[in-house]
């Protein structure tokens, strides 16, 4: 009789612990999902910042070319080999 009561008590404790473990696992899963969303957002922000930096550098290069040869700017865009790179580095 005593062993049956002890078995019931231990089974109840085990059931309670299992429920708590499931709750903690669910909470951990939700937190992990939030962390993944945050990391994805940060990666996207970094990608956008890199793109902005690259575009800013390209714009600065285009502006310097336009200052060197304002009348021939459009023609040089179609032929990158004709760009006055030495003049760009001297003035930059």
Principal-axis shape: rod-shaped
Low-confidence region ranges: none
The count of β-strands is 0
Multimer state? single chain
Structural class: mainly alpha
Can you give the helix content as a percent range? over 70%
Following the backbone from N to C, one meets helices and strands in this order, namely HHH
Question: How many H/I helices?
Answer: 3
User: How much of the sequence is in beta strands?
Assistant: under 5%
Q: How can the largest sheet be summarized? A: none
Write down the Rg: 33 Å
Mean pLDDT value = 84
Cα(first) to Cα(last) distance is 93 Å
Describe this structure in words.
- Helix content is 87%, strand content 0%.
- The relative contact order is 0.05.
- The protein has 92 residues and is mainly α.
- The chain has three helices and no strands.
- The termini are far apart.
List keywords for this structure.
3 helices; mainly alpha; 92 residues
Q: What's the short version?
A:
Helix content is 87%, strand content 0%.
Ordered list of secondary-structure elements with their pairings:
Layout (H helix, E strand, L loop, with lengths): L1 H67 L4 H6 L6 H7 L1
